[in-house]
Amino acid sequence: MRKKLAALLGTAVLAGAVTVVGLPASASAATMPSACPKELILPVPVTEKATTNVNLRSGPKSGATSKGLLTKGTKFDLYCSSGGSQSWGYGKVLAGANKGKWGWVAERYLKQV
Fold first, then answer.
1. Start and end of every SH3b domain (predicted)?
2. Quick one: which of 34, 46, 86, 109 could link to 54 by a disulfide (CB 3.0–4.6 Å)?
3. How do residues 63-78 score in pLDDT, each as one tens digit?
4. Which domains does the chain have, with CATH numbers?
């Protein structure tokens, strides 16, 4: 995930893009949670899928309240990463019982589609 994030951010810098270009109005930099450092907001969302059943959380830690369960294979648009060794991704659920919900997922349980 770290390599993918670095590549996406590097492409945005080389292109002279502002890091928030491409975000839909519902996911502007102004609405991103404070745990999304400005430099880790992706220029465009990356579609990922859950590699196992995983909780959608209210914050970037395992102790945060669960907002629902993403079942294996559920697609998730990743808009930012918390960074660090235990990286969490913030984004929107694209399918299933929690479709349309925003929250955090441990990135070790996500794989790019």
1. 53-111
2. 109
3. 999 999 999 999 999 9
4. 2-112 (2.30.30.40)
